[in-house]
Amino acid sequence: MKELEQLKDMYKQTFDSEAGQKVLRDLEARCNWRALSYVAGDANATAFEEGKRGVILHIHNMLTEE
Q: How far apart are alpha carbons 25 and 6 in whole angstroms?
């Protein structure tokens, strides 16, 4: 459990800086943070887009979960 808390702290250190915030905003835009990831008629493309979205969701979870 201590390792997880240390890792969360590293995420916070990375994304709390001005540069980290800019990178986070860029990742949000590229990884479907607030957009649909569904691609009509293409299950593989939808799965790919959901994979990208999973990354940004993980980052946000690491930054907000206690």
A: 23
Closest Cα partner for 65 from 6, 7, 22, 8? 8
For 26-53, b where at least 16 C-beta lie within 10 A, e where not — what string? ebbeebbbeeebeeeeeeeeeeebeeeb
The CA distances from residue 12 to 21, 46, 61, in Å, are 10, 30, 11
Condensed to tens digits (0 to 9), the pLDDT of residues 35-58 reads 888 999 999 999 999 999 999 999
d(CA 43, CA 56): 20
CA atoms within 13 A on the CB side of 48: 7
pTM of the prediction?
0.84
Single-letter amino acid code for the residue at 24: L
